[in-house]
Every structure is written in structure tokens, then in C-alpha cells.
Amino acid sequence: MAKDRLEAGRGRRAEVVRKSKAKSKTPFYAAIAVIAVAGIGALAYVASRPKNVATTVDAPAIAAGEAQGYLLGKVDAPVQVIEFADFECPACGQFATLAEPDIRKRLIEPGTISYRFYDYPLPMHKNTWAASNAAACADEQGKFWEMHDQLFNAQDQWNGQATSRPKSKFLEYAKALGMDANKWEACFDAKKYEPRIKANEQMATKRGASQTPTFVIGNKMVGGAISYDHFKALVDSALALAKSDSTKPASGGDTGRSASVPAKGPGGR
Amino acid sequence: MTKRMIVGTLALIGVFVSTYLTLYKLGYIGTLQCAVGSCETVNTSRWATFLGMPVAAWGLGFYVVSLALAFTSIQERYADSRTMAVALAVLTGWGTLFSGWLTYLELFVIHAICMWCVISACIVLVMFLVSIAELRDFRPEAA
User: Fold this and answer.
1) For an interface test with B, which of A23, A57, A156 has the most B Cβ atoms less than 10 Å from its Cβ?
2) What percent of chain B has pLDDT over 70?
3) Which of A51, B88, B91, B99 could serve as a FRET partner for A92 with CA atoms 20 to 30 Å apart?
């Protein structure tokens, strides 16, 4: 083929010009069209499927207790934000590691928003209940957010594809975070907080959260690992609404209804 | 089909593979269809993000640029341009190196293989080989 195409002047520097035979582009465009249609169709199909399909693990058969989120920031902040998240969900991990540090620094620490985390363990994740349990037991020692960060930072170490026995990893984290390991382990083994996790899950369902993470910011609900800018825009909108109508709190939560806010939140960091 | 058209066709397939992984990473898709390997382990690892963006999104950018370049290069004006051939070879060569690094991480650091990542790596490799073959067409004939 090279011979046909090559046009090198004899004795000249190996000039790199070739003369292509005119080839029909029709087969190429036909292939492109077929691949484009198939690809768009396949992506539309997978994106439209329900995300919370049960595949491997059923939630523990336990009675729900009282829903209780984990608070970060001032309880009386002008905008209240709720997150429904699954510790094993990759998008939640992405949000927690990419956007959440900025949110804490720029919105929670200055007191603009209060932030509550509610467990929303999805059935397709094998170790998410154990992770929620581990975080709840860390909360008992005032280390929920530290454990929360550690779980999301190291999802690949303990998720259902990495291990079927995540407890040893969680225990390792508990020790590294300076907790009383015996106390934490006793709490974890007793599954003491499963009724609360169950209640948090039910609250997420009741609020219509269809994916993780889902955020309720003011009067808006948004799903997915949104960026800091997107999050901030929603907070600004809720703030504006709160200012324009000071009689209505810009509450995103069920704090006065089904969710009880722990009076002693770990506070902004 | 010319070699450049083959590169373009592969780039389009790569666009869809990387879009799928990007949508997953952004939370628009619940679980990855992963017949072989541990896609979630790989895509939730710390290595799945590069310079603040999902690696899949970088891949998507790479494939879109490759597709645009391949489309441009088959136009009459550039059909015999060696510069275009060089550009394709350099671009896909860079993509191959990056994919190679990611595959190394999967095998020796994360210890898990993501089927879609392997498919993408194969696509990039074939694009590179075809681009090199295309570039060789410009070599002078032996006297």
C-alpha cells in the first residue's frame, strides 16, 4: 500500500507526500452512524434503569427505630442541608472526597449551613450496613465524622468487592482514630444502631431519594455527586429564599418531624 | 476504510466506553455491568481520579480529541498530510502510555481489574498501532 501512495522525488530528501486514491467515505460514515446509534441507545438504557436494584444483600430484618442524622455545623444555621448517602456508593465517596472538604470549609465552618448525614444503605452493596454500623459506633465516641471520612477515603479497602469481612478494616480505622477499640467492637458486634440506620433508610425512601447521594438543600432536592459550585448555587438560592421570607425557615430537613437532630453534634471542623 | 477511518471508528467506540464509566463515576448509573473483574473496586479507588477529575472523564476528552482529529484528517485537504499522521501517532501514543500506567496500577497497586478499563486500553493500543502503520506509509521507498 505504501508503494502505491508514496511519491518520493528521486534523489530528493525523502519527501513525505503521498497521493491518496480517492476512497469512498460512505462505509466509514455508515459505521460511525451505527456505532453512534448503538452507543447512545445503550447509554440511555443503562442511565434510565432504576439504580437501587436489589441483587445480593437484603437489609437486616429489624424494626426501625427513630431516624437520626449526624450533625455538622451550627444547628441554627440559616440553611439546613440533609444528605442521604451510602458509605459503599462510589458517587458518595466521590462527593465526600472532592466536594465535601470545600463545603465544610466555606459553608459549614462560617455557619452558613448545617449539615446532616443520614444513612441510605442500598441493597446492592454488601458491606454498607456494616459501614453504617461502624460509623454509628464511632459516633458513640464522638468520632462519627472522622470515621465517615475514613470510610469514604478508603472505600476500596473494605467494600463488597474487596472483602466479605470488613470488620477488621473498620477496627483498624477505629484504633487509628483514637477510639476505645474494645468499646467500639462491642458496639459493632451488638449491631446496636441498626434500628436507627433502618429508620434513616426509611426516611430517605419517604423523602423520595432515588439515588445516592441525594441532598435536600432548602426546598430543593438534588441527586448525584454534585460539584461544590452546584452545591453552593443551591445554598445561595435557599439563602435568598430565607431572606426574602424570614417567616419561613429555609429548612431542608425533617428536623421538626421524623428526624431528631442530635443536640451534641460534633460541630464544624 | 483507510487507517485514519479505523482510528476514528475506534475513537467513537472509546467515547461511549469512557462516557459509560464517567456517568458511573458521577453517580448517574447505579452499578457497572462488569462480567469480568472488579469494576467497582477500580473505579472507587483513589486512582480513579486524576487532577481532581475522574480518570474516565480524561479518557472521554482523549477520545473526543482523537475522533475530531481523525475526522479532520480524512478531509480532502488533509488526506495526504503527514502532519496529521504524526499528530495521530503522538496523541494515541500518549494515550497508550497513560493507559499502560493505569493498567499497571490495576494489576500491581489496586490488585483488581476493571473490564471496561481493559477494553479502553485495548482500543487505545489498537488506535496507536494503526496510527503507526499509517505513519509508516509516509516513509520513502528504498531506492
Assistant:
1) A156
2) 92
3) B99
**Cell representation of residue A62:** 429489624
| Dist. CA A146–CA A118, nearest whole Å | 15
Q: Find chain A residues with C-beta within 8 A of B19's C-beta.
A: 39, 43
Going by C-alpha positions, the residue among B122, B35, B85, B31 that lies closest to residue A57 is B31
Q: Looking at per-residue confidence, does A56 or B23 come out higher?
A: B23
Cα–Cα distance measured from residue A182 to residue A202, given in angstroms and rounded to the nearest whole number: 30
Asked if B27 lies within 8 A of A32 by C-beta distance, the reply is no
The alpha carbon of residue A28 is apart from the nearest alpha carbon of chain B, in Å, by 6
| Domain ranges within chain A, ordered by starting residue | 70-244
Give A-chain residues touching B9 at CB under 8 angstroms. 28, 31-32, 35
Residues 6+ positions from B27 with CB-CB distance below 8 Å: A89, A90, A91, A92, A94, A95, A211, A212, A213, A223, A224, A225
pTM for the model stands at 0.50
**Can you give the pLDDT at residue A131?**
96
Q: Per the CB < 8 Å rule, is B26 touching A94? A: yes
pLDDT digits (tens, 9 = 90+) for B7-62: 999 999 999 999 998 888 777 776 677 777 677 667 766 778 888 888 999 999 99
Name which CATH class applies to B3-136: mainly alpha
Delimit the domains of chain B by residue range: 3-136
B64 inside 8 A of chain A by CB: no
Q: Which residues contact A115 (CB under 8 A, 6 or more apart)?
A: A71, A72, A73, A81, A83, A103, A104, A108
B82 touches chain A (CB under 8 A): yes
Question: Which CATH number describes the domain made up of A70-244?
Answer: 3.40.30.10
